[in-house]
Amino acid sequence: xxxxxxxxxxxxxxxxxxxxxxxxxxxxxxxxxxxxxxxxxxxxxxxxxxxxxxxxxxxxxxxxxxxxxxxxxxxxxxxxxxxxxxxxxxxxxxxxxxxxxxxxxxxxxxxxxxxxxxxxxxxxxxxxxxxxxxxxxxxxxxxxxxxxxxxxxxxxxxxxxxxxxxxxxxxxxxxxxxxxxxxxxxxxxxxxxxxxxxxxxxxxxxxxxxxxxxxxxxxxxxxxxxxxxxxxxxxxxxxxxxxxxxxxxxxxxxxxxxxxxxxxxxxxxxxxxxxxxxxxxxxxxxxxxxxxxxxxxxxxxxxxxxxxxxxxxxxxxxxxxxxxxxxxxxxxxxxxxxxxxxxxxxxxxxxxxxxxxxxxxxxxxxxxxxxxxxxxxxxxxxxxxxxxxxxxxxxxxxxxxxxxxxxxxxxxxxxxxxxxxxxxxxxxxxxxxxxxxxxxxxxxxxxxxxxxxxxxxxxxxxxxxxxxxxxxxxxxxxxxxxxxxxxxx
Length: 489
Hints:
This protein is of the alpha/beta class. The protein contains 16 helices and 20 strands. The strands form five sheets. It has an eight-stranded parallel beta sheet. Strands 16-17-18-19-20 form a five-stranded antiparallel beta sheet, covered by helices on one side. Helix 1 packs parallel to helix 2. The radius of gyration is 23 Å and the shape is globular. The chain starts with 7 loop residues before the first strand and ends with a strand.
């Protein structure tokens, strides 16, 4: 299939009105014409934690959200993107529960990465662990097998509990590949068009490496998944937070990638009122990217921008965001921190709050995103230009809850009435409809306190000029008859 070069929505299945049926209604009514590029529905599957990212299975929809009928119905008018956590599955999944009961005699035992698959004697070696890019202090969990009473240590890259709720899969095992195939075939039968390979960078565990995006092994797995997806006419979007060179390798490999550099660069441009670094970045980047400013996690910093930013300057930007209510996700492994100790993985906040709740600055950020080549995604919290939810963070103790609000239909109506939201919706419709965005992109010469971006297709043209001193943004464009018009965002 060909992806539509138009704006996509990112949302949880229950964040806009409570369920998938209401989301379907919104896409065809209140949000009609906005997200013609598609909708990324964050995990709607039964899950034991991490707000859907510890799925029990991909063969069912959580009844609290709806049914596969709702997914198929949305897919009839809007391309659907869903996540597949290829690295792990829930501890509460029927597969791991069977393993917990029967141990190595379980028919699913080979699904999981027991430690003897990493260390032949099954005994972890700290020297090896010190080389790894860790997401928890210890990358494995210990479980007692019910029938035998014996203990099994199983690899668990993610998870805040001990033992973890997220159990790593052995992607080399035939049974794992059969299970992944069944998930993809089910997606195909239910109108899913795009699958995001969540946490795909962690699937290879190899001693002597960081166990993150291990080359060339990772490409063997990606080749297999690409072949399966092509067979089913499904597009893939690998999700990898890594040094930008890794992303560019994926782009060269023929994958769509995320532009995890852009959110920081745009924020830096607007806070520092200088386009110099952003212009330099836009001069040489792959075009086959999904662009975003905000998401359910945070604004990427390390390792995505390693080698692109000075840590002292990054720390100043981080401190400004902290003053505006943000919190941080940090790098745990000393080996993967910067030499000076800088360890910020992601800045967690709404993009609107990061820009000090300035409507013009926020609209300028969105305009820049929409003019940068790629498929733009707008997170539902960003659609409403929402502020940091500090009360929810305090209530739950979970920093990521800062931008994971849920909205009732009454809430949605109130949000859509906000002037900044109406301006953003007008901008989205312009991005979806002007033909020049299908053409050739260029960064025009400008002083550092301005940014000028241009698109051209035959007789059609549109250009964006952002004044970084005032945050005023102007679009000049040709109408269908070729006349030049102007549009102040």
